[in-house]
């Protein structure tokens, strides 16, 4: 069974982690990747999820793709060099990378959006533009192996697109 990584950190958006987590579990082995292994991470509303492995301990070669939920968690994710390096490894291997809401912050930190079309929550539009991305306001934006969406309302389209690319 193919494996898919989902990044996790404190202050993740509940919907943007739970919906992909359970949908992807239908067809893939899903691994929650945090900055620390077996750490309990709290969502914006207080829901707790535990990581399966630390970002420094996995290899992108072992996974079909990676999903980056939003909320404020990507701001914490990008403070961990191993997590940024992991996203860089998926990008270098041209494996599907899906990011929603604030998730594209990780793509900016991993230098993965220069010259690519991307979308996100509008509040980080400037950050993505300054990182070299071309920001568009669409439900799902596919640019090579990078798939981005704006908010939880876009999750069904984002996950269908991500699964089709896996």
Q: Main sheet: which strands, in order across? A: 5-2-1-6-7-11-10
Main sheet?
A: 7 strands, mixed
Binned strand content: 15-25%
How far apart are the termini?
A: 12 Å
Q: Given the structure, what is the number of helices? A: 6
**pLDDT below 50 for ≥5 consecutive residues: which ranges?**
none
Overall mean pLDDT: 97
Given helix and strand content, the structural type is alpha/beta
Residue share in helices? 25-40%
Summary, kept brief:
The protein is of the alpha/beta class and 166 residues long.
Question: What would your notes on this structure say?
Answer:
The chain is globular. Strand 10 and strand 11 form a beta hairpin. The strands form three sheets. Strands 5-2-1-6-7-11-10 form a seven-stranded mixed β-sheet, with helices on both faces. The chain is α/β, with parallel strands linked by helices and 166 residues long. The mean pLDDT is 97. The protein has helices at residues 14-25, 73-77, 81-92, 104-109, 125-130, 155-165, and strands at residues 3-7, 29-34, 40-42, 48-50, 53-54, 65-68, 97-100, 117-118, 134-135, 140-143, 146-149.
